Each structure stands twice: as structure tokens, then as C-alpha cells.
Amino acid sequence: MWYSYAIMPLMTPLGKARVSKATRDRMLAMPPEELRAISLKMVAARLAKRPPLSKQQLSSNRKAERDNLRKQCIAAYGGKCACCCESTYEFLTIDHIDGGGRQHRKVIHNFYRWLRMNNFPPGFQVLCYNCNCCKGAYGSCVHDAHTVLHIGH
Rounded to two decimals, what is the model's pTM? Predict the structure, then answer.
């Protein structure tokens, strides 16, 4: 049914209440047509409060949100490379400790959002881009004391 998506869950992924249980029960008891009409009025009221943003403003806002989300994820996993201790934010990435990152990205849409919604689960670490590429290409990083890489001839 279309209106099953219009009914918001009681809690957001971050644990904040969206609507009270009484409001949710009242919404579930409404006929679908009435609920749709109320939902459309609420959306129109929200849109009327804010002036429309230009494409450039929207793009800038989305980039800021993505950067903020990425910073939250990197901070949650230690904020520096687990291998070489690099802490320059622009160089850092999130790594699947046991591999399988490509398959995981195919299943989920937004990796950083998925991490936050799942309360930053174990099995991930922060690596700088160099260490992450080295781990992917050679199985471990050159910074590991026990690793000897045989590159080239």
C-alpha cells in the first residue's frame, strides 16, 4: 500500500522521536485518501516556509553534508590511519578489515550513511589511501613489519 511509506517510524536511525505513538496510531486509523491529503498539505506548508534554493546552493549543501558524514565516520573509527598514523583528513578512507569492500558497496547505496545508521559496526578501520591501495593490491601494507613486497622484476 502506498501510504505505508507515508507513516513514519517512531524513531529515527539516530534514536530521535519523529512522531508520538498517539499521532502514529491516529494516522494509521485514517483512510488512505485523507492521510494523503494531509501529507500533501504538510509538504506544501514546509516548502512555503523556505525559498527554493538554486542548483549551486543545493550542490553546495549536499557536498557539505557528505563531507560532514565522512568526517563523522572517520572520527568514529579513530581519525587516523591504523597503519602509518596519517591524520590528514583528505588522505583517509574507511577500509573493510577482512576485505570484501567491492561486494559490500554493490549491496548498499551510501557507505558512510550505512555506517552511521548501523552505529559504526566493527570490521572497519581507517587507512590512508596509500595503505588502502597497498593492502588491496598486495594483501598488506609496506608499513607492516612482517611484510616484504616483491614488486617489479
Answer: 0.58
